[in-house]
Amino acid sequence: MPSMSLISPSPLPFMKMHGLGNDFVVFDAREHEMPLSEGLIRAIAHRQKGIGFDQLAVIAKGSGDAHLTFYNADGSTSGACGNATRCIARHLMDELGTESLHLTTDRGDLFAKDAGNRLTSVNMGQPQLVWHEIPLAEQMDTLALPIDGAPVATGMGNPHCTFFVDDVEGVDLAAFGAAHEHHPLYPQRTNVQIAQITGPDRIRMRVWERGVGITLASGSSSCATAVAAARRGLTGRAVRIDLDGGTLAVEWRDDGVWMTGPTMHVADGTLTPEFIASAT
Question: pTM for the whole thing?
Fold first, then answer.
């Protein structure tokens, strides 16, 4: 990934946010370019020597209210990040004094709105259900992949692989997620979910994110799991998903997959010139 500009001699401001413990470092590049090389992104991601995050997001000017770009902790890009989108949407709605937003991403146009009680909803768009859109390596039935456990493949701007199990707590997610992230059926790697149906419209889910590892929550993974459960006939199209970090409401509507939940703007800070220089 090319650097966005030369290394700045000045401190670099950032925001720290999270959605249900799914945490983000966010840079606002609407007025100034951000000097984000791949090495600097990885350095910021380090939880002992940097700031630490599951994803990093950059806010830039766009054809809508703003354009969002996402990066994983390993420096790779991600086409979508649902919880980061909700966090940034809340920040921008508060800043602009509006109750709705039009955001653009590599995934496409996304729309956000205030759901009341400081909850934020984002329409993550229509799921990708055809093998080459997700993408998978070859043509196959995306509702039951030829992998042990017959997982469901879904695209939400990034690839997902959802396993339905009897007990999510009984799965060694660290080993399971790492083993399946790089499965040859997924040429761009995949996010891995293990999900347990706990009620007519309730799902317990844990997630391994590609390029990151185990996270407390994942918005796009929650959307993918809700879609997979509905396609399998295990739930309706509106569900509550209980993650390690809390609960999200997801509804697969005619206009896309809507996700609703809380957000938190934790702190504002600056990266020092010394830190920036050390990461180049």
Answer: 0.90
